[in-house]
Amino acid sequence: MAAEEYRECLKNQCVASGFHTVDGCQFFFPGNDPSAVFNCAACSCHRSFHRKNFLKREPERSPSTSRPRAGGIKRKKEQFRRRRRRFTAEQKEKMLACASLLGWRVGWLRAEVESFCEEVGIEEKAFFNWMRNNKRKYETKP
Fold first, then answer.
1. How large is the average pLDDT for residues 115-141?
2. Which among 9, 87, 109, 130 is most buried, taking Cβ atoms within 10 Å?
3. Comparing C-alpha atoms, which of 68, 69, 16, 24 is closest to residue 45?
4. What residue spans carry the Basic residues bias annotation (predicted)?
5. Residue 49: count of CB within 10 angstroms of its CB
6. How far apart (Å, rounded) are the C-alpha atoms in residues 54 and 7?
7. What domains are defined for the chain?
């Protein structure tokens, strides 16, 4: 369970003039009056204007669970890097020809793109990504 404490006041005192100024209240002090419990005694602002800080409480551990497990040192999970897709020169030439025929836009020609990708041996996502990345490099403007 996390406890919370309220820190400095963040209320902008000069909002009407277009500036940002805070009053300098560094900590929320609840008022003594029961009707004003949520107002700070120092700056008279509501508690919601003060920055909320969450304090984490760790659960108490019993002596039986505090011992290390058998197996030695814990290792970090290996992070796998996404493998970059490599195209052959032939695939690049065919993709360039197809993209220029399409006008570097797919539009309503999904069936043609799907058959082209099956013919060349690439995924549609890979072709769309290649088009997006190479459009400026190869596109000729009229």
1. 89
2. 9
3. 24
4. 72-84
5. 19
6. 10
7. 2-56 (no CATH), 89-138 (1.10.10.60)
